[in-house]
Design a protein that fits this description.
The chain is an alpha+beta fold and 199 residues long. The protein folds into 2 domains: 76 residues, Winged helix-like DNA-binding domain superfamily/Winged helix DNA-binding domain (Arc Repressor Mutant, subunit A, Orthogonal Bundle); 109 residues, Beta Polymerase, domain 2, CATH 3.30.460. It contains 11 helices and 6 strands. The radius of gyration is 18 Å and the shape is elongated.
């Protein structure tokens, strides 16, 4: 979905950016000024939004070191909003752009704490990349991306057939990725696995 469509849905670019910051990484808390800087809004506008969003149950307020910090609500009914904002986040766009320029990447996705919405600002980004790409080359290519995003990026690479065999063998890593939340970057994991198994 393009940004102009989302602006229409959410009412303004500033509101969209504030919601995107909160819901793209729901485990990350923001101070009022920090969220204002992220959204490109003045702190007074953000204070009013946060007051309304807290009352509506979109945001939770917690005291941390004597200061209020605001987090996306963990209400399961808001999970689609998390998914939407993750798909549209700068983090996803940056990773997608970096990976689309690399040869041998058929499927790529984020898994782990970021996909679960349990990551903090400095949490590592865990990626699964399926195809012919070398894990060593992938991680070397993603180092500058990690610096840009301000967090380490760790890619696990495998061929689709090898990953499928891990699933068949009941390996916990593969099962955890497939059964857990994930944020797609390139391709479709489920479709790739179905094609690989001939189902």
């Amino acid at each position: 979905m393009n940004e102009s469509t989302l602006v229409e849905v959410f009412g303004s670019l500033g509101r969209l950016r504030a919601l995107r910051a909160l819901f793209a990484e729901p485990g990350r808390g923001f101070g009022q000024r920090e969220l204002a800087a992220e959204a490109g809004l003045d702190p007074g506008s953000v204070a009013r939004l946060l007051k309304r969003w807290t009352a509506a149950g979109l945001v939770t307020r917690r005291q941390q070191d004597g200061l209020p910090r605001y987090y996306a609500s963990t209400d399961p009914a808001l999970a689609p909003l998390v998914t939407l904002m993750q798909q549209d986040s700068a983090l996803v766009r940056t990773l997608r752009e970096a990976l689309s320029g690399l040869a041998g990447v058929d499927v790529a996705l984020i898994f782990g704490s970021v996909a679960r919405g349990a990551a903090g600002a400095a949490s590592d980004l865990d990626l699964l990349v399926l195809g012919r790409a070398s894990e060593l080359k992938l991680n070397a290519a993603l180092k500058p991306v990690g610096r840009k995003l301000g967090r380490a990026v760790h890619a696990t690479a495998s061929t689709i057939d090898s990953f499928k065999n891990q699933l068949r063998g009941g390996e916990s890593f593969a099962l955890g990725v497939v059964q857990g939340p994930r944020v797609p970057l390139i391709g479709d994991l489920d479709a790739a696995l179905l094609q690989a198994t001939g189902l």
